[in-house]
Design a protein that fits this description.
This protein is of the alpha+beta class. It contains 28 helices and 54 strands. This is DUF1683 family protein.
Length: 1272
């Protein structure tokens, strides 16, 4: 529909011309009423670029297999990446796997469920080919501004014009556009009423009326006059109004007055009168055309007047009359056959006129839900003009026209919302498909034309010509070729008709040049893509498959093998599912050709295997050729055109019962004993059309030590096979005759107890590279028919000897009844066998006192109780399994660990630190877990020899478990032993050993005067002595002895990963390595004064440390506390034999800051009565802010009296400020009054910023000894 003129597709709107007072035209057009109609609407202007992009974008479906248009300039997708993607996708469909590659999922058809509204008032839109059907709100009148005398004069007709006139064409190309855009049916003349009341003031108005009437007289255009006044009080009986009415010679009701203040009311009245006149105009035009029909003798004029009557009726919304006269015009057209038309020009013109008329008729039928009439009209239309009349060189254009007709009708069916879609089976699918079919015919008939004229110089000079995207552009008559495409339509003159005849060959060469630029594949795929979308809506799977095959063939013709392969492959899936073997055979053969041209050897092998299947309908000869080509891919690719070869081994995943080659396996028995022999059978059935030689047969088991390999002869796979070979003949090669089944037997020597399963069987074709046919036996073969044991190995209970004797007897019976299966018959396929040992009767125990503590050599006593026969030898292995962090038990243990983390108290408020377990023990690079024979790291214990053990006797051995992390250690002890009767048995048991911290530590910092460190909001101060109190609480179920505790100061690398510190230097000033700088200095500890202490459950142990932090940082740990402890041995007060363990506890991370205020108190060591002494306090402000302080001095009373011991000079109460990086000194003079030990005055200095007293002045218990005054 894009090539049809827009005025023909949409409903015409009556046109009214506006003359005079142009500033009112906009207000009238703005306030015209609208009506609601459902009609076609173009989405974008028609242009070569727009149409091209619209063709490529408007019909791309959401379905991954819907046709996607490929531009003519777009190269075929044959890049290695794209080929690899497609090849992997197809390999996955063909059950082919390549090493180190994972195939993408197979293409699957998506089912679209779309519902379309059949109501004309539906708000949904149907968009097709740049058009859409939508509920529109067009104006009831279309207005256009024209000048006085702006209408072109109509050429006067001669007497008896209809009888003698011979038209050059049927319908003028610009006639529709002229009546819808430039030639109005009514002219509205706006006159400004003059204020001057003189008799001559209205002469200019009369002149305008005369000029307009003279201009519209020949066109039968109706006139209405609007007199614009500035006042609402108009004297309608004024003589000047009477003169205007007489001069206009129109009905007085069509002369109306307009006051600009009442514009909206005026427009409603004006448009009502205008509609009456437009209807009258078109009605008279219809009558005039009817009168001309009776006088006309030439069929062209009859067709023309019928067309005009139908189009005029559309202006009047008389659709029944329009349909009637469009049908009359079409019947008149079909009844006239051109004579003497060797060039086919008249046929082309009539064909185009018929196309316009057919579109109108079908549209009206479909719009009124008369689907059957529309179908009959279209079929009659195609039947009348299907046979071409003209030169053979132009026949391709005829097929282009037929394809366009089918496409337009399909678009009408798709977009007309009133159409009952159930009345048209399949909807527009057939018509889109037929349009694609005739596009193929167009390409076919143009081929020999292009071969003849493509290199002609006459064609080359039009190589820049562009196709016409509007069938009326540049033409004089519809259907005739344009005389000159450079001339606009309105400037066409009759002289161009002569140019058309003189330069007719140029038009032919131009059409060839344009046709050479056509991408037929894009056109065909676009049409088939629309049919695919409609078939998807109707959910007709068979039609979908058929359309997909057409799209695939088109891509194959255009050498776009990658796109063709996608559609062929999807079709193959459908045909295989529906068992349409003939269609599947053709589709697979096309797939084989596609992958051959795309050089995809893996996919080639897959499709070749499918085509070799005897289920398909290809002949034995064709299958033999495919088998030979398959071998050439592996051996000699030069014999293929184009060459294609396999460069790497290819694994082909085979089904259990593949129609080409299948495999079956069997363990003859379900149970075997260890250290014995059993058989394993493999049956391979081949249905290759010719004898074939394989290279190797492999059986892969769950235990690689059981894998078996059978090599064939050393000949090449393409070497001739001896014709003397017979089926069912015993031979050692891997040659298979057609439809032959062969049995291969493998002898297995059983080992230890296990469930042995055959996982896969691999049959190799060729070598370096090879095609490996892989059967995943574990997916379909049954397991052992014995009931599997659900109990864990280490929890199994000993069985009685009677069952063991029964098992041995059953094994002997099985060996005596060994029967090979018949390869041509069905047999029980068993892929696994259970290898059993003699049952173990030994009992394993572990004696210990839980729980174990981190870094402790945990003592465990192993005890073996022999309930079996006398043991001569054996071994014990220890396997320490990794803890299962994801178990609920471990999560509970982690929550318990958080409660055991060290805490720190600031201002008597405990704060729990948040380091993880690995952070607590970060000094160790890796957590240590092991079993040791002694309480040392000298050697680990992994195996232990078992000595001679008598029946009913026991064996004991002590070993140690060491773990440096909190977990649930799982220790599995495996015992293998041999009895006196040479019976080998195995036993295993697992034990859980929980590991905990065992001690809850709490840390608290104090100042040197034993006051809590609460000055700086939880931080401690660098370069000032601190006291650290460590409280240890024991929560173990047994008693322990703490020998001592030590504190190790961390360096920077141990304290934190990102220290906030300045570079340190040694005493000489040389810079040190920052990672080795200690974060503090330990002054003293209380360990020397504490003796070993015994702790019971919930007992406490405390120790003190005096240290100085040296480095500042946001999160630093000053060091680690190590607890030296041992278990208290019952009955031994000395505890000499107990093992001392070390438990390191990392100090919590603290914020260490610089002291904002450095306070130094200077006072003499003693005083003398009556001798003044100096007392000073020096405060340094290390912050970046101005700090304010308050001073309050309290002089305490002396002992035994009420007088103060000192008199002092200086401020008692006051405030002062210290600037950043500045020092302030407070001086007082003390005069001792009494000899003895007296408390000094309390100099209380409080920081206003922190609202706390300075620590140096906080202690009120400072004394000074005053000596008596001794005179000489």
């Amino acid at each position: 529909m894009n090539e049809l003129p827009e005025e023909l597709v949409t409903l015409p709107i009556p046109l009214v011309g506006l003359i005079g007072i142009s500033n009112l035209h906009f207000y009238i057009e703005k306030n015209i009423s609208t009506r609601s109609i459902v009609d076609f609407q173009r989405l974008h202007p028609v242009s070569p670029i727009a149409t091209s992009s619209q063709q490529q974008q408007s019909h791309i479906s959401l379905d991954p297999l819907s046709p996607k248009l490929v531009s003519a300039d777009t190269p075929i997708s044959s890049s290695p990446s794209n080929q690899s993607r497609i090849e992997q996708q197809l390999n996955n469909d063909l059950l082919i796997s390549t090493p180190n590659n994972s195939g993408s999922p197979a293409l699957q058809q998506q089912q679209h469920s779309q519902s379309q509204s059949s109501s004309p008032n539906s708000s949904t839109t149907n968009t097709v080919s740049g058009w859409r059907v939508q509920l529109l709100q067009p104006p009831i009148i279309k207005v256009v501004s024209i000048e006085v005398g702006g209408l072109t004069n109509k050429k006067e007709k001669k007497p008896n014009h209809s009888e003698s006139f011979i038209p050059q064409g049927v319908i003028k190309a610009n006639w529709i556009h002229k009546h819808t855009a430039s030639l109005p049916s009514v002219v509205s003349l706006f006159l400004q009423w003059p204020e001057d009341k003189s008799p001559k003031s209205h002469d200019a108005l009369l002149s305008q009326i005369d000029a307009v009437k003279a201009n519209i007289k020949q066109r039968n255009v109706k006139l209405m006059i609007v007199i614009v006044t500035n006042s609402s009080n108009v004297d309608v009986y004024d003589e000047r109004f009477s003169m205007i009415r007489r001069r206009a010679d129109i009905d007085p009701k069509y002369i109306i007055f307009l006051n600009k203040s009442e514009m909206k009311i005026f427009v409603k009245k004006w448009e009502k009168l205008a509609l009456e006149l437009t209807d009258l105009h078109y009605k008279e035009e219809c009558q005039s055309s009817k009168s001309q029909i009776a006088k006309s003798t030439h069929p062209f004029l009859v067709i023309r007047y019928h067309f005009k009557i139908a189009f005029y009726s559309e202006f009047r919304n008389d659709m029944n009359s329009s349909l009637k006269y469009y049908t009359f015009a079409y019947n008149s057209l079909k009844d006239w056959k051109p004579n003497n038309d060797p060039r086919g020009s008249r046929f082309e013109e009539l064909r185009m006129i018929a196309s316009f008329l057919n579109f109108k008729i079908c549209k009206f039928y479909l719009w009124s839900n008369n689907s059957n009439e529309a179908l009959q009209q279209f079929e009659r239309h195609i039947r009348l003009f299907k046979i071409y009349h003209g030169p053979d060189e132009k026949q391709f254009g005829h097929y282009q026209w037929i394809a366009r007709e089918y496409q337009i009708f399909a678009e009408l069916l798709e977009m007309c919302t009133n159409t009952n879609r159930n009345a048209i089976p399949g909807g527009s699918i057939f018509y889109y498909q037929t349009a694609a079919k005739y596009t193929e015919e167009r390409r076919k008939y143009f081929k020999w034309v292009s071969d003849k004229y493509s290199n002609s110089t006459s064609v080359q000079k039009f190589k820049d010509s562009k196709p016409r995207f509007n069938l009326t552009t540049g033409c004089i008559y519809i259907g005739q070729p344009p005389p000159d495409l450079s001339h606009p339509l309105d400037h066409s003159t009759p002289a161009m008709v002569g140019v058309l005849h003189d330069d007719e060959m140029d038009d032919f060469y131009r059409s060839i040049s344009i046709e050479l630029q056509t991408n037929y594949t894009n056109l065909i795929v676009d049409l088939l893509g629309r049919a695919f979308e409609q078939a998807t809506i109707h959910r007709n799977t068979r039609i979908i498959s058929f359309i997909e095959s057409l799209i695939a063939n088109e891509y194959f013709i255009d050498h776009q093998y990658d796109m063709a392969l996608q559609y062929f492959n999807h079709n193959a899936l459908t045909y295989r599912r529906e068992k349409w073997w003939m269609l599947l055979t053709y589709t697979l053969s096309m797939c084989l050709k596609c992958v051959h041209n795309l050089n995809q050897p893996t996919s080639y092998i897959g499709y070749a295997m499918d085509l070799l299947s005897p289920d398909l309908t290809n002949s034995k000869k064709e299958r033999s050729i495919i088998q030979q080509f398959l071998l050439y891919v592996l051996v000699d690719s030069s014999k293929l055109s184009p060459p294609i070869s396999l460069t790497a081994p290819l694994d082909v995943k085979m089904d259990h019962t593949h129609p080409l080659i299948n495999c079956r396996v069997q363990f003859p028995h379900s149970i075997a004993t260890s250290h014995s022999k059993t058989e394993f059978f493999v049956v391979i059935e081949s249905h290759f059309p010719d004898p074939i030689r394989f290279s190797k047969l492999r059986a892969v088991f769950s235990d690689p030590s059981y894998n078996k390999v059978l090599n064939g002869d050393q000949l090449s796979i393409v070497d001739p096979i001896s014709p003397t070979l017979k089926m069912n003949q015993e031979r050692k090669d891997l040659v298979f005759l057609p439809n032959e089944s062969r049995l291969f037997s493998f002898t297995l020597a059983t080992k230890e107890k296990m469930e042995l399963e055959c996982q896969s069987v691999i049959l190799e074709l060729g070598s370096s590279p090879s095609v490996n046919f892989c059967w995943n036996i574990s997916e379909w073969a049954i397991k052992s028919d014995q009931e599997s044991s659900d109990k864990d190995q280490h929890n199994q209970q000993p069985q009685v000897k009677k069952n063991q004797v029964t098992l041995q007897q059953q094994q002997q019976q099985q060996q005596q009844q060994l029967v090979k299966p018949d390869p041509y018959k069905k047999f029980l396929e068993r892929s696994s066998i259970r290898i059993l040992d003699h049952e173990s009767l030994i009992q394993i125990k572990c004696n210990h006192t839980p729980p174990a503590i981190i870094n402790e050599f945990y003592e465990i006593e192993l005890e073996l109780v022999n309930n079996d026969k006398e043991i001569t030898k054996g071994t014990i292995t220890f396997e320490l399994l990794n803890p299962n962090i994801a178990t609920n038990q471990q999560q509970q243990q982690q929550q318990q660990t958080e409660l055991l983390l060290p805490t720190i108290e600031i201002n008597n408020k405990p704060l729990v630190s948040s380091p993880s377990i690995t952070q607590i023990h970060q000094t160790q690079q890796q957590a240590e877990r092991g079993i040791y024979p002694k309480p040392s790291f000298s050697e680990q214990l992994s195996t232990l020899s078992l000595p001679h053990i008598q029946e009913k006797a026991s064996f004991k051995k002590i070993f140690y478990l060491h773990s440096s992390q909190i977990d649930e250690n799982r220790l599995v002890i495996n015992v293998s032993y041999e009895t006196k009767s040479n019976e080998i048995s195995h036993s295993s048991k697992g034990f859980n050993f929980p590991v905990q911290i065992g001690f809850l530590t709490q840390f608290q910092f104090f100042s040197t005067n034993f006051t809590p460190n609460d000055m700086y909001d939880g931080a401690i101060v660098a370069k000032e002595p601190l006291l650290l109190l460590c409280d240890i609480r024991m929560n173990l179920p047994y008693d322990v002895v703490i020998d001592k505790t030590t504190l190790k100061i961390n360096n920077v690398s141990q304290a934190t990963l990102n220290p906030l510190m300045m570079g340190a230097s040694d005493e000489s000033g040389a810079p040190n390595d920052a990672s080795s700088v200690p974060v503090g200095h330990l002054l003293s500890s209380s360990n020397s004064n504490l003796s070993p202490s015994t702790l019971t459950r919930d007992g406490n142990y405390s120790c003190w440390f005096n240290l100085i932090p040296l480095i500042t940082g946001e999160s630093l740990s000053l060091g680690s506390l190590t607890i030296y402890w041992r278990r208290k041995v019952k009955g031994n007060d000395q505890d000499d034999k107990s093992i001392v363990s070390q438990l390191p506890i990392l100090l919590p991370h603290m914020r260490i800051t610089t002291n904002p205020f450095i306070t130094n108190v200077n006072v003499p060591s003693y005083g003398v009565v009556g001798v003044p002494l100096a007392h000073s306090i020096v405060i340094t402000n290390n912050t970046n802010f101005l700090q304010e302080f308050e001073l309050l001095v309290t002089n305490p009373a002396s002992y035994g009296g009420s007088d103060a011991p000192f008199l002092f000079a200086g401020d008692r109460v006051g405030t002062f400020s210290i600037h950043p990086e500045s020092t302030h000194e407070i001086r007082h003079v003390l005069l001792p009054l009494v000899a003895g030990k007296h408390p000094l005055p309390h100099f209380k200095i409080t920081s206003k910023r922190f609202n706390k007293e300075l620590p140096k002045t906080k202690n009120t218990n400072e004394f000074l000894f005053v000596k008596p005054f001794l005179s000489n």
